[in-house]
Design a protein that fits this description.
TIM Barrel; 3-stranded antiparallel β-sheet; binds 3-methyl-2-oxobutanoic acid; 8-stranded parallel β-barrel; binds zinc ion; 4 domains; alpha/beta
Length: about 500
């Protein structure tokens, strides 16, 4: 049985999702969960991109023991040196160098000829090979590269010391037949004395990222790159949970397996959804809320008689717990701690104290506290703990005609509280005007979404916002959860404003 390696780029390509910015603490948390999930290689970031990226890659390199830790670099010595520095403490370091090889990229983006591109690959892959044992090369936009030139680029990288060749479908242009054939062509035609790992890297612009990755595996790729929940640049990357399950459920067909701990899948997905503020669509394969729900009477009847009639995946296989018992007002600290452990949370004593107090306060307002409520509660606590400027209070004056008024106060990390009182056409606009005044920011609200976390009138509200900073057109996401919709709206806006503020310091 072939073993397929999993390369996770949630912290690099995944962080290229508009508005997603993980802080270092969050990146370490995700890395640790990826290790539990069974990922072979984690792309921790792009060390030259910023001091924050460098620090995150370095911290992950120091915290991760089993996985190989990779850092991205362009074909430039300064990028390779910076990646080397960041990865020095990794048990298994790897560099990932890329250079575009398609005509359109070489002509318009790089302004380089084919000869110059080949020379650069040779120079930089050899340079990296002196520093790293594991060198991965990616001919960016490989799927739109003229085939004979792609082969030359790949052969040049191998001759210069690359041991891993990643074949990116950078713009999600390929299809399974074509992408699979590209792997077969490269594998059949390269010359190498040592074993080369071939890896897929697909984007989902035409909705074929998972199918393309599986076609690559069928045609000899032994590594797959992707992200958790498929987040990433534009339409995103191959969703790794989909590939892991396809290999497991259709093992008869693929005759290949992985070391992914399937039971950790839901937990990994939840963590990334929570920290990226990108919710998983209800109909998403494997981890979507509806993936194991049966609506039609005929289906329900079939599943009751034998789940295999309509269920190819048992929810527990991927860690979806359908029979979880909710907590309530009378649940004690013991039950609360046991539930957190069941959900995979490890809290410090202080965090636990705060979480239990919040739980009790929620249980006073809401009859049944479900797993989703608890995850939401901890998400909100985490948001508050990592924020520099915290929402202290919101007061709204509502009038059924005319303007609405809001008074908001926010406390910064030096314990200085600022208060603003503003009006708006609606209550939320009034609150947001006040927050803008306190942060002294010029932003526009690009997205606003509100969702109930559970069914029922006593449900908590989850508000998601996307702000665009007018100065540089950068986007920032924020999530706020509260029993009250106005408070949740204010929390979400403060969360995103904190990121605008941190970026502009
Ligand atoms: O999509 C892409 O081409 C990339 C490369 C850096 C591998 O992300
Ligand atoms: Zn990519």
């Amino acid at each position: 049985m072939r073993k397929i390696q999993f390369f996770d780029t949630t912290l690099r390509d995944g962080e290229q999702t508009p508005g997603v910015n993980f802080n270092t603490k969050e990146k370490i948390q995700i890395a640790q969960q990826l290790e539990k999930w069974g990922i072979d290689v984690i792309e921790a970031g792009f060390p030259i991109a910023s001091d924050g990226d460098f620090e995150a890659v370095q911290n992950i390199a120091r915290n991760v023991k089993k996985m190989t830790v990779a850092g991205l670099a362009r074909c430039q010595k300064k990028d390779i040196d910076r990646a080397y520095e960041a990865l020095q403490d990794a048990v298994h370091p790897q560099i990932h160098i890329f250079l575009a090889t398609s005509d359109v990229h070489m002509k318009y983006k790089l302004k380089m000829t084919e000869t110059e591109v080949l020379a650069s690959i040779k120079e930089h892959v050899s340079y990296a090979r002196n520093l790293f044992e594991k060198v991965q090369f990616s001919p960016e936009d490989a799927s739109r590269t003229e085939k004979s030139f792609l082969l030359k680029a790949v052969q040049t990288a191998i001759d210069a010391g690359a041991t891993i060749i990643n074949v990116p479908d950078t713009v999600g242009y390929s299809n399974p037949t074509e992408y699979g054939a590209l792997f077969k062509f490269l594998i059949d035609n390269i010359q190498s004395e040592q074993e080369i790992i071939f890896s897929s890297h697909c984007h989902d612009d035409l909705g074929m990222a998972t199918a393309n990755a599986l076609a690559a595996i069928e045609n000899g790729a032994n590594r797959v790159e992707g992200t958790v929940n498929g987040i990433g640049e534009r339409a995103g990357n191959t969703a790794l949970e989909e590939v892991a399950l396809a290999l497991y459920i259709r093992n008869d067909f693929y005759q290949a397996n992985s070391q992914i701990e399937l039971a950790e899948t839901k937990r990994t997905s939840d963590l990334v959804a929570r920290l990226s503020s990108i919710p998983v669509p209800k109909n998403k394969a494997i981890i979507g809320e509806n993936a194991y729900a049966h609506e039609s009477g005929i289906h329900q009847d079939g599943v009751l008689k034998n789940p295999e009639t309509y269920e190819i995946i048992t929810p527990s296989l991927v860690g979806v717990n359908k029979n979880s018992l909710p907590l309530g007002k009378l649940s004690g600290r013991h039950a609360f701690v046991a539930k957190l452990a069941e959900l995979g949370y490890q809290l410090s004593d202080d965090e636990l104290k705060t979480a239990f107090a919040r739980f009790k306060s929620l249980a006073d307002k809401k009859k049944q506290i479900t797993d989703d409520d608890l995850i939401a509660l901890l998400t909100d606590q985490h948001r508050e703990e990592t924020e520099q400027c915290k929402l202290s209070s919101v007061q709204v004056q509502y009038s059924s005609n005319g303007f609405q008024g809001a008074i908001v106060s926010i406390t910064d990390s030096n314990d200085q509280t600022k208060v603003a009182s503003t009006i708006g056409s609606g209550s939320i606009q009034a609150i947001y005007n006040a927050i803008d005044e306190i942060f002294d920011q010029d932003v526009s609200l690009t997205e606003y979404e509100i969702q109930a976390i559970t069914a029922g009138e006593d449900a908590q509200a989850e508000v998601r916002v996307l702000l665009t900073d007018e100065k540089n057109q950068q986007t920032y996401r924020g999530v706020g959860i509260d029993f009250d919709v106005l408070q949740a709206s204010a929390k979400a806006y403060v969360a995103a404003s904190n990121q605008v503020f941190t970026k502009n310091i």
